[in-house]
Each structure stands twice: as structure tokens, then as C-alpha cells.
Please model this.
Amino acid sequence: MNERRCVARPIKSAGAFLVLALALAVVALIRPSAWKLGLIITYKFKEEVPMQASLLSLGAKPPLTSHQIRVKSLYTPTSFNDPTDSTSMAAIPAPKWAQKTITLPPQRRGCHHITPKILKEIGQDLSGFKCGLAHLFIQHTSASLTINENYDSDVRDDTETFLSKIVPEGRSAPWKHTLEGPDDMPAHIKSSMFGCSLTIPITDGQLNMGTWQGIWLCEHRDRATARKVVVTLNGV
Model:
């Protein structure tokens, strides 16, 4: 009974559509200027006929809705408790965490390669991770962290030259925040450009960076203080 009602509705809609089209054709013959209005009304009426109802009238199946779609799992563990089973959840080691705050001594303005210093401070904890992530966060708004060339110091010098040229500085600069010196507001902008954090993968107890990649501390103040970097390790 319900199926007949679903089929009858689109048939009635289609019949009404044909009657409307014929009526508009007659009006267009009497008043040719009315054909534009007829096209608009016909198009709008056609849009309102449900596609699903039209498919039912033709005997086709409507498209599946999101709740009707079923996805088969490609992998299901056979056991959750057997430690000898490599697919068992019990065989997966529990994740662990380690965290340390590293204090870096004051540096001159510019970019500084600090990978050896970081590794010296976290090396013992780092060696206990087979796979994971290392997150570094600098607790300052006038210095930043980035990853770049670890070999040629000219790259660091050129980067500082670029930053000094792209961010105006001095009494003629258009900054309002000048209470802490003419280099302070430019330092805030440069800090936001590079960012205050890094995430590095851990593999077999080591930071898994490229051969020529190194961690940089970018100091943006002329007279800097010591900088603190919080290193958080997470993994298995």
C-alpha cells in the first residue's frame, strides 16, 4: 500500500507539470511576451519534483543514505588478551610521556643552531622511545623556533638579514608598541612568523630529522635574556 502511494505521487506531479506546460503554451500564443514568465515557472516547478520520487516511478532504487552505507573492516584482531598473539591489543606497549624544561643561555640577535644542546638535555629520556613525537615549545614572545640548515652558518646569517629587511625597525617604523625599545615590536612580529613550537618524529630513540636539518633558536632582541624551551616526549 505504501509503495503504491509513493509511485502515485510522482505520477500526479508529472501530470500537473504537463497541464501547466500546455496552459503556458496557449498563453504564449495569445501573448508572446508571456513566454519568459512561463519558462521561469516551468523551471521552478520542475526543480521541486523530488528526484527520489521520480526514481520510484520508474522502478529504480533510490540512492543509499549515509546511515545505510556499510563498511567492512579490513582487519579485526582475533584476540585482545593473548600476549603471544601479535595482533592482540595486550601486545601493544602502553604509551609513555617525558617532559623537561631546558634553559638556553642568552644569545646575540640572530639564528642559532641548538640541536646539540637539546639532544644533550633530553638524550637519556629520548633513548627510551621506539616510536613517538617530540614537541618543543619556547616560552617567549620575542624569540622563535624553526628547523632549517644545520651545516652552513651563512644560511643563519642570511635568514637574519632577511628578517631585518622584511620587518621595519627603528624610530621611523609605524609601530605603536615602543615602550620596551624599538626592537621589541619587530621581535614580536618575527616570533609569530616562525612560531613558538616544533613537532619532530622520534624513531628508535632518535629525532628523525633530515641529514641537513637542525633546530634553530631565533633570537629577535638586541639584548636578550635566557630562553626556556619545554620539550615533551610522547610515544612507545
Remarks:
- Residues 1-8, 38-58, 71-80 have pLDDT under 50 and may be disordered.
- The chain has two domains: 2-64, 94-169+181-235.
- The chain has six helices and eight strands.
